[in-house]
């Protein structure tokens, strides 16, 4: 199976992909025993070995996939939903265990105060949590975080049995240290994969 | 030193010009390069060696060098042949062919990558046909080589062409009348005169290949330890916030490029010296 996933050095999306695979195995979400680092590495290694292109970013990766390269592309759910809306023919599978990406939003105190835009900024943040904004998110394939909207669109967003967040893996600093730092797990497994 | 009094009216003007040119080059090239070297040596020579010897970096550098050497050898032969055809034959479309040779300089390298994808992509007819016969071009080493060959086409052709134009056909005719075969004429009469421009063009195309990013990043697949070239590796390090590592690896590439560039200059300088055919002067 030829897999497409971007290069974690250049793509945040790729880091999510790698962390999701590794995390799913580590949390017992695959056929492997929970907490078994070696088994999680084995799964990640098997995936890396099959990667055909590591594009610069998630978008490029999906474009490559749409152009007919590879059997499987690892990406965000919303990328697939949007692509399908615009007529792309593709099947998608949501793994039983995977990462929930929680996109943060924040008002930057210093900046907002300096430019006297705090009211506006805070109003915008609250607007994003209204039904109207959340429905827009859902329309573009992003899972709503407001319950009422989430319930209304639940048909488009299948329940994932074991959904975890980056916090469950120890937070990004920890994940970067273990997986993505120079000569850490990702580099090591890539190095092993070449010897196929 | 001041024997040449035609160029500028005054000594002051000459000094101003010289100073201006030196500061221009310093500002544009030396200062940014010095900044890079400083950043790359932030962790000392140890840090630089560690960055370059890191397995993914080393693999990327080696891949970049050997693909560069390979396409340079191809260029040396194909470029010389192209120059030969352009200079020695008149045929319809020659001007167009000559213009096409320069085109790679004017095309954004990303577009070069896109074009290769359109031809050799697995769902395209040629790419598909090759794939069915077990030949993978895209997202593999052949795609890297093709991209590099495309962007470096002009170097050898444009280095060899003017020298070839200068060669007096009388020398070849003389060899012919002495009974030399055309292969011998090429080897003994033409090639010695062309050796330096060929070397010069080849070294230039090698230096250019070392630096290529835009087309390669699109066609190579970018997989560490397989198809990740040094410039794309650098890009990854910069994007992951490790510009110190990127700077260190850049220094290695820069050193090679500088060496090649100095070598190319040395070769060319002698090319315009005594080895140039001098017939007509005497």
Largest sheet of chain B: none
Helix content of chain B: over 70%
Give me the count of strands of chain B: 0
Mean pLDDT of chain B: 89
Low-confidence stretches of chain A: none
What is the radius of gyration of chain A? 19 Å
Q: What is the N-to-C order of secondary-structure elements of chain A (H for helix, E for strand)? A: EHHEHEHEHHHHEHH
| Number of E-state strands of chain A | 5
- Main sheet attributes: strand count, strand direction, barrel closure of chain A: 3 strands, parallel
- Low-pLDDT stretches of chain B are 273-282
Taken from the alpha-carbon principal axes, the silhouette of chain A is globular
| Percentage beta strand of chain A | 5-15%
C-alpha end-to-end distance of chain A:
14 Å
Q: Largest contact between protein chains?
A: A-B, 22 and 26 residues
> What is the subunit arrangement here?
heterodimer
Structural class of chain A: mainly alpha
- Please count the helical segments of chain A: 10
Helix content of chain A: 40-55%
> Topology as H/E string of chain B?
HHHHHHHHHHHH
Q: What portion of the residues of chain B fall into strands of 2 or more residues? A: under 5%
Class by SSE composition of chain B: mainly alpha
Summarize this structure as a short list of keywords or feature phrases.
heterodimer; A: 196 residues; mainly alpha; 3-stranded parallel sheet; two-stranded parallel ribbon; 10 helices; 5 strands; B: 282 residues; 12 helices; 0% strand
């Amino acid at each position: 199976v030829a897999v497409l996933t971007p290069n974690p050095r250049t793509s945040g999306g790729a880091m999510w992909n790698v962390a999701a695979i590794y995390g799913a195995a580590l949390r017992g979400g695959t056929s492997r025993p929970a907490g078994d680092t070696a088994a999680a590495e084995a799964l990640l290694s098997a995936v890396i070995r099959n990667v055909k292109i590591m594009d610069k970013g998630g978008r490029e990766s999906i474009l490559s996939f749409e152009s007919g390269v590879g059997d499987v592309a690892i990406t965000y759910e919303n990328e697939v939903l949007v692509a399908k809306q615009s007529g792309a023919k593709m099947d998608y599978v949501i793994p039983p265990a995977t990462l929930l990406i929680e996109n943060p939003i924040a008002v930057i105190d210093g900046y907002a105060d300096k430019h006297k835009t705090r009211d506006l900024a805070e109003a915008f943040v609250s607007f994003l949590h209204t039904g109207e904004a959340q429905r827009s998110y859902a329309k573009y394939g992003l899972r709503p975080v407001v319950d009422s909207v989430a319930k209304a669109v639940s048909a488009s967003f299948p329940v994932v049995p074991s959904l975890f967040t980056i916090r469950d893996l120890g937070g990004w600093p920890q994940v970067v240290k273990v997986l993505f730092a120079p000569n850490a797990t990702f580099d090591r497994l890539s190095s092993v994969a070449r010897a196929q | 030193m001041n024997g040449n009094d035609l160029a500028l009216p005054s000594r002051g003007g000459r000094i101003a010009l010289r100073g201006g040119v030196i500061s221009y080059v310093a500002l544009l090239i030396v200062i940014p390069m010095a900044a890079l070297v400083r950043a790359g040596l932030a962790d000392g020579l140890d840090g630089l060696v560690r960055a370059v010897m890191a397995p993914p970096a080393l693999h990327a550098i080696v891949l970049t060098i050997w693909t560069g050497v390979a396409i340079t050898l191809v260029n040396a032969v194909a470029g010389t042949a192209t120059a030969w055809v352009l200079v020695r034959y008149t045929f319809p479309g020659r001007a167009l062919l000559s213009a096409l040779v320069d085109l790679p300089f004017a095309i954004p390298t990303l577009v070069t990558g896109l074009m290769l994808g359109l031809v050799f992509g697995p769902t395209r007819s040629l790419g598909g046909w090759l794939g069915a016969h077990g030949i993978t071009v895209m997202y593999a080493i052949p795609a890297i080589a093709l991209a590099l060959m495309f962007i470096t086409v002009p170097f050898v052709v444009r280095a060899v062409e003017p020298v070839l134009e200068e060669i007096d056909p009388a020398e070849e005719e003389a060899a012919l009348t002495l009974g030399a075969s055309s292969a011998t004429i090429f080897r003994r009469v033409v090639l010695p005169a062309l050796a330096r421009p060929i070397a010069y063009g080849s070294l230039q195309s090698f230096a250019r290949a070392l630096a290529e990013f835009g087309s390669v990043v699109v066609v190579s697949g970018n997989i560490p330890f397989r198809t990740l070239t040094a410039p794309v590796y650098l890009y990854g390090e910069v994007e992951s916030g490790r510009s110190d590592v990127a700077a260190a690896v850049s220094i290695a590439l820069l050193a090679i490029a500088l060496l090649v560039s100095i070598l190319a200059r040395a070769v060319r300088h002698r090319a315009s010296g005594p080895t140039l055919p001098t017939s007509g002067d005497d």
